[in-house]
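Render this sequence as a predicted structure.
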Amino acid sequence: MAEGGNKQTETELFSEALQELPRNDDLKRMLIEIIDARINPINESLANIDEKMTKFEKIESDIGVMKKQLSEKTKKLTVDIEQNKRNIKQTEEKLLRLDLQRRQTNLIIDNIEQKGGENVIKTVETCLGNIGCAVSISNAYRMGAPGGQGRIAPIFVEFQTRRDVDRVKKTAWTKQNSKTVKIREDLPNELRKLRGKAYANHIKAAKREQKKFRWDLDKLFINNVQIDLSAEIEETRRDITRNS
């Protein structure tokens, strides 16, 4: 009886222990709760990462749009700058052409002997008469006082017509030599310096080779081919800037 009672007691104890163990459904629920407790923070972190990635992609997209807009504006600005350069160049040429038209009835004469109390117009008329070129003069005056070391102030001469100017230039440039007076065009300072440099670098050799040359404002053509004067233009601008 005692042994049977012991067995019964052990069985009962085992049965009770089994009953205390969670059932399958309870065990599953416990495991799910444990897993959820572990996974939820991970999911929240992933959600935060996704949100941040979405924001980053939006920022990256906005940057791409801004780059495209900046590129388009830069291209437009470059086009506008080039157009403005062309407009400025055209305006400069128009102003230069107008200035030359205003000066086209003028000449400057160097090396005419200077005397006190002279009548400059009479002096010029006598000089031109000596080379067989009698024309009508509107005005004439010395450009400054005599310089040192025998320097003679040049004479500015205004003629009545462009035809008179052309006649004087043709006659004087044909007959004058190093010992006679020098007659030159009334040019703006920058253009005069540019043409002087072009003469030394291009025209002198062209004349030796009997090539024809002509000027159109600041453009030089030799045998109807335009000469690149970019170096002379840059040098002229440096000279004027340095001396200003």
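Summary. Strands lie at 106-110, 137-142, 155-159, 182-185, 213-216, 219-222, 225-226. DSSP finds six helices and seven strands in the chain.
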